Amino acid sequence: MISGSLVALVTPMDSRGNLDWEALDRLVEFHLTEGTDGIVAVGTSGESATLDFDEHKEVIRRVVDRVAGRIPVIAGTGANSTSEAVRLTEDARDVGADACLLVTPYYNKPTQEGLYQHYRFIAEAVDIPQILYNVPGRTAVDMLPDTVARLADIDNIVGIKEATGDLQRAREVIERVGDRMAVYSGDDPTAVELILLGGKGNISVTANVAPRLMHELCAAALKGDADTARRLNDALMPLHKQLFIESNPIPAKWALHEMGLIADGLRLPLTSLSPDCRPVVREALQQCGLL
Questions:
Q1: Which of 125, 135, 180, 215 could share a disulfide with 152, CB 3.0–4.6 Å?
Q2: Nearest to 97 by CA among 118, 67, 139
Q3: Three state DSSP letters for 239-283
Q4: Parallel, antiparallel, or unpaired: how do β-strands 4-8 and 38-41 relate?
Q5: Residue 107 pLDDT > 90, yes or no?
Q6: Which helix (H) or strand (E) holds 167?
Q7: Which tens digit of pLDDT belongs to each residue from 6-32?
Q8: If pLDDT is split at 50, 70 and 90, which confidence band does 1 have?
Q9: C-alpha to C-alpha distance for 283 and 119, rounded to whole angstroms
Q10: Is residue 203 part of an annotated ligand binding site?
Q11: Sign of CA dihedral 236, 241, 242, 243
Q12: What CA–CA distance (Å, rounded) separates 60 from 95?
């Protein structure tokens, strides 16, 4: 079972929005050195919405090749078209990803039955471990615990990223499916509490810039060391907050640029962090000892 701190990796780009392969290699090595337990490539933080099929597949392939089996690689392969999600998931399997993360279909707002049929179709079409991803704040659709419980009966649906930040929801999901699938946090501020409830880790934005601290936080929580985990979480709270001062991954990419790891490149419609937000993010980095 994949567990621990799983970074929702940004996709490095130059100032024109072209993919920066050398910076991607540096980021992967940074995470391997700093103790990250797994890498999620081309999820929401990886700007999956503006990468084409070939770029999507190539980023995953390069991450898999660079990691070389040292930690798990989870590929973001969700889409609001079921057929596109199948193709992306097939591509991820073919280049060697260990599992796939599939966000709920966005914008078209399927019913709960539609969500069930969508995920079942993909799971039956592509033989690779698959992790559901519920983030209604970005997709405008909420996958309810009843639907998650139905999907937990499908063998290769092995987990869910629960990113509502609602700990009562997390508790219900863990109680209902925790014996059949891994439940991961997708909300950095509440990740410690979700893991202490029985979750298996955190798919994290904060881990982009503070991988060592997020690894230690998740390790402590998984061991049941609540005091250490909460102390680390308190120390990281400035980053948890300020890395969402504008839409993810804008602040995370700017922070990594400030740390000298990547260029500050994004693709439209995303733009660089607003000048008035930069001192706030810089201060959070300094408070966490990262500058």
A1: 180
A2: 67
A3: HHHHCCCCCCCHHHHHHHHHCCCCCCCCCCCCCCCCHHHHHHHHH
A4: parallel
A5: yes
A6: helix 167-177
A7: 999 999 999 999 999 999 999 999 999
A8: confident
A9: 42
A10: yes
A11: positive
A12: 7
CA-only gyration radius of the chain, Å: 18
The active-site residue out of 161, 184, 200, 253 is 161
pLDDT digits (tens, 9 = 90+) for 146-204: 999 999 999 999 999 999 999 999 999 999 999 999 999 999 999 999 999 999 999 99
- Residue 133 a catalytic site member: yes
Tokens of residue 25, six digits: 């290699």
109 is catalytic: no
Cβ proximity of 131 and 100 under 8 Å: yes
Q: List the domains of the chain with CATH numbers.
A: 4-226 (3.20.20.70)
Q: What are phi and psi of 6, to 5 degrees?
A: -115, 110
Q: Are the C-beta atoms of residues 30 and 62 closer than 8 Å to each other? A: no
Check residue 208 and report its DSSP letter. G
Helix or strand (DSSP H, E) at 213: helix 211-222
DSSP 111-123: -HHHHHHHHHHHH
How far are the Cα atoms of 13, 90, 134, 170, 200 from residue 178, in angstroms, in the given order?
A: 38, 27, 16, 10, 9
**In the structure encoding, which two tokens stand for residue 28, read together?**
């992967």
Choose, from 106, 116, 133, 184, the residue flagged as catalytic: 133
Amino acid letter, residue 220: A
User: CA–CA distance from 36 to each of 77, 245, 273, 288 (Å)?
Assistant: 21, 24, 26, 17
Cis bond before residue 249 (omega within 30° of 0)? yes
Would you state the structure tokens that stand for residue 155, as one six-digit string? 């063998």
Q: Angle between the 278-287 and 226-242 helix axes, to the nearest 10 degrees?
A: 160
